Amino acid sequence: MNEWLERAQEKDREDKLAKYKKEFYLGEAIHYMDGNSLGLMSRPAERSLLDVMEDWKQHGIDGWTRGNRPWFYMSERLGEMMADLVGADAHEVLATNSTTMNIHQTVRTLYQPTDDRYRILVDDLNFPSDIYAVQSILDDYGHSDGMVKIPSDDGHTLSTEAIIDRMDESVALVLLPSVLYRSGQVLEMKKLTEKAHEKGILIGFDLCHSIGSVPHELKKWGVDFAMWCTYKHLNGGPGSVGGLYVHERHHNLAVSLKGWFGNNKETQFDMAHTFDQARDISQYQVGTPHIFSMAPLLGSLKMFQEAGMMNIRRKSLELTSFMMDMIEAVLEGHEVEIVTPRAHAHRGGHILIGHPKAAGINAALKSKGVIPDFRAPNYVRIAPVALYNSFEDVHHTVMILKEIMDDRLYEQFDNKRGVIA
């Protein structure tokens, strides 16, 4: 087993991103492997939140327009900071609302059904909130039967060709995840976008499990819209404000959910009862922005700008490859199944392992200082994050998992999930 530790330590010595680990709050003897659910707090994020609180203390209501971080423009400023992460222009990206609210806002705005073309194409493996939102929209338009789900042949991954084959003339819009939240499969966004547009279909992606771990070129690919959360790989904190991209070709449409922060900023405080829609992505805002839920991102996103997404992606792939190789080598015979695709082009920033006693294994890992998460019915997700996990962290995680399997320690725990998995 020393061979694996030596390899991990050698990789850590060569790691150009290793310096960022000290910027995060890591518990004693904790191997945090749940950054795909909630990223850790960083010192830059903490400082930026405290700085914004200081602005409130010093400026009161004038904090909306004074200081180094005027609140009135913070959504747009953060959008500019996220633009490179999604491969878009600054005027197309915004920090606002939550992921589910942004699905409602974008789909309700872009979806223009006809009697013959009204279906929305989704997938059978998507996160439930996305499905709830789409069904709600279809219900409101009187097209309750309009949802079309692409099935999975293996229960874990989706076929690009199967998705394309279902893009017929009855489909008005497609909403898919960029990375499947269970298996970690990365979809072929560029190809799917090209094929959708060939058939006159709008297409958007939920980037919640790819933003901050996988590079994107949304503008170059021609993607119509996308939304994402900022509390996973972007480390914005629990409930931090969501992100939104809409291609500039759609900025001439009347937004569905209108509110005063979607108004032209030059006329917003005229307080007229006629909505003067902003000309850029700002139009997708609704109510007053949640300043303290955005403030940590000012610090967190600076690290992404410094580190560079290609460097983050390279290390992320190396971390997950090392973990999968080690699991296969040291856990042979323990019925541990690696579900996540091995090909780099098809793998996001986390891996999914399966076992009949997965809930018990998840609990046992936590008791030993490893923090993963459980996904029903029999899976554990493990996410080594490039900015704060080392290869030695991965080594220790797998060795703890081996101990749990060798000694059947999972039998000491109920094989069922908690209220929050």
Automatic annotation (TrEMBL):
<dbReference type="GO" id="GO:0009435">
    <property type="term" value="P:NAD+ biosynthetic process"/>
</dbReference>
<dbReference type="InterPro" id="IPR010111">
    <property type="entry name" value="Kynureninase"/>
</dbReference>
<keyword id="KW-0663">Pyridoxal phosphate</keyword>
<dbReference type="InterPro" id="IPR015424">
    <property type="entry name" value="PyrdxlP-dep_Trfase"/>
</dbReference>
<feature type="binding site">
    <location>
        <position position="206"/>
    </location>
    <ligand>
        <name>pyridoxal 5'-phosphate</name>
    </ligand>
</feature>
<dbReference type="GO" id="GO:0030170">
    <property type="term" value="F:pyridoxal phosphate binding"/>
</dbReference>
<dbReference type="InterPro" id="IPR015421">
    <property type="entry name" value="PyrdxlP-dep_Trfase_major"/>
</dbReference>
<dbReference type="GO" id="GO:0097053">
    <property type="term" value="P:L-kynurenine catabolic process"/>
</dbReference>
<dbReference type="GO" id="GO:0019805">
    <property type="term" value="P:quinolinate biosynthetic process"/>
</dbReference>
<feature type="modified residue" description="N6-(pyridoxal phosphate)lysine">
    <location>
        <position position="232"/>
    </location>
</feature>
<feature type="binding site">
    <location>
        <position position="288"/>
    </location>
    <ligand>
        <name>pyridoxal 5'-phosphate</name>
    </ligand>
</feature>
<feature type="binding site">
    <location>
        <position position="260"/>
    </location>
    <ligand>
        <name>pyridoxal 5'-phosphate</name>
    </ligand>
</feature>
<keyword id="KW-0662">Pyridine nucleotide biosynthesis</keyword>
<comment type="subunit">
    <text>Homodimer.</text>
</comment>
<comment type="similarity">
    <text>Belongs to the kynureninase family.</text>
</comment>
<comment type="function">
    <text>Catalyzes the cleavage of L-kynurenine (L-Kyn) and L-3-hydroxykynurenine (L-3OHKyn) into anthranilic acid (AA) and 3-hydroxyanthranilic acid (3-OHAA), respectively.</text>
</comment>
<keyword id="KW-0378">Hydrolase</keyword>
<feature type="binding site">
    <location>
        <position position="99"/>
    </location>
    <ligand>
        <name>pyridoxal 5'-phosphate</name>
    </ligand>
</feature>
<dbReference type="InterPro" id="IPR015422">
    <property type="entry name" value="PyrdxlP-dep_Trfase_small"/>
</dbReference>
<dbReference type="Pfam" id="PF22580">
    <property type="entry name" value="KYNU_C"/>
</dbReference>
<feature type="binding site">
    <location>
        <position position="100"/>
    </location>
    <ligand>
        <name>pyridoxal 5'-phosphate</name>
    </ligand>
</feature>
<comment type="pathway">
    <text>Cofactor biosynthesis; NAD(+) biosynthesis; quinolinate from L-kynurenine: step 2/3.</text>
</comment>
<dbReference type="GO" id="GO:0005737">
    <property type="term" value="C:cytoplasm"/>
</dbReference>
<dbReference type="GO" id="GO:0030429">
    <property type="term" value="F:kynureninase activity"/>
</dbReference>
<feature type="binding site">
    <location>
        <position position="209"/>
    </location>
    <ligand>
        <name>pyridoxal 5'-phosphate</name>
    </ligand>
</feature>
<dbReference type="GO" id="GO:0043420">
    <property type="term" value="P:anthranilate metabolic process"/>
</dbReference>
<protein>
    <recommendedName>
        <fullName>Kynureninase</fullName>
        <ecNumber>3.7.1.3</ecNumber>
    </recommendedName>
</protein>
<comment type="pathway">
    <text>Amino-acid degradation; L-kynurenine degradation; L-alanine and anthranilate from L-kynurenine: step 1/1.</text>
</comment>
<feature type="binding site">
    <location>
        <position position="231"/>
    </location>
    <ligand>
        <name>pyridoxal 5'-phosphate</name>
    </ligand>
</feature>
<feature type="binding site">
    <location>
        <begin position="127"/>
        <end position="130"/>
    </location>
    <ligand>
        <name>pyridoxal 5'-phosphate</name>
    </ligand>
</feature>
<dbReference type="GO" id="GO:0019441">
    <property type="term" value="P:L-tryptophan catabolic process to kynurenine"/>
</dbReference>
